[in-house]
Specification:
- The complex is a heterodimer of chains A (113) and B (115).
- With 113 residues, chain A is mostly beta strands.
- Chain A has strands at 4-5, 10-14, 19-25, 32-38, 45-51, 56-59, 62-67, 72-77, 86-93, 102-103, 107-112.
- In chain A, strands 2, 4, 5, 9, 10 and 11 form a 6-stranded mixed β-sheet that branches. In chain A, strands 1-3-8-7-6 form a 5-stranded antiparallel β-sheet, with no helix packed on it.
- Chain A is globular, with a radius of gyration of 13 Å.
- Chain B is an all-beta fold and 115 residues long.
- Chain B starts with a strand and ends with a strand.
- Classes of the chains: A mainly beta (113), B mainly beta (115).
Chain lengths: 113, 115
Amino acid sequence: DQQVKQNSPSLSVQEGRISILNCDYTNSMFDYFLWYKKYPAEGPTFLISISSIKDKNEDGRFTVFLNKSAKHLSLHIVPSQPGDSAVYFCAAISSNTGNQFYFGTGTSLTVIP
Amino acid sequence: DVKVTQSSRYLVKRTGEKVFLECVQDMDHENMFWYRQDPGLGLRLIYFSYDVKMKEKGDIPEGYSVSREKKERFSLILESASTNQTSMYLCASSLPGTSSQNIQYFGAGTRLSVL
């Protein structure tokens, strides 16, 4: 059973506009969330994370928002750049089972120049 | 700089062959993981290890085994490769402890084709 879901397999955005990638989860025990970025033929690289005690974390052009009541998080990229074109995975961890990540299925972002 | 190295980028094997995928990390991480990535299915955990000689099954362990004889090396073994094991295999490592330390660092992946 998929505990972390990314319902949009793909997203296209014009360069300079905002990209919003969404992620939903079902397990209320998750207390730490991460976003990873993956280029073709490379491994995923860590992008940004957020603890459940926060509702927002910002790092340059990237901001992650967490809505615990809705069990929903989103990644905002502003402004979007062609180099942001990649597959984005969200992941969730529970402190109770800290070693295991639960990944979503990924969203392929294309930023059009 | 953090480094997770997978021994092969591309592998082509025949059905029934025994296949070894090797992963080495230089960060002295206790935790190591093997995933496979398939279109529409994301990253699925096969096995992980939180210490030398320790292993835990992930979500899809069937048809796979692992070996962790040294802290820096984690091997994935396909005892008898089948065509449905054609996939991208990703190794990762992380520190143990609280969630804020649990960033996983990934290797570049091994694209395995089983014919």
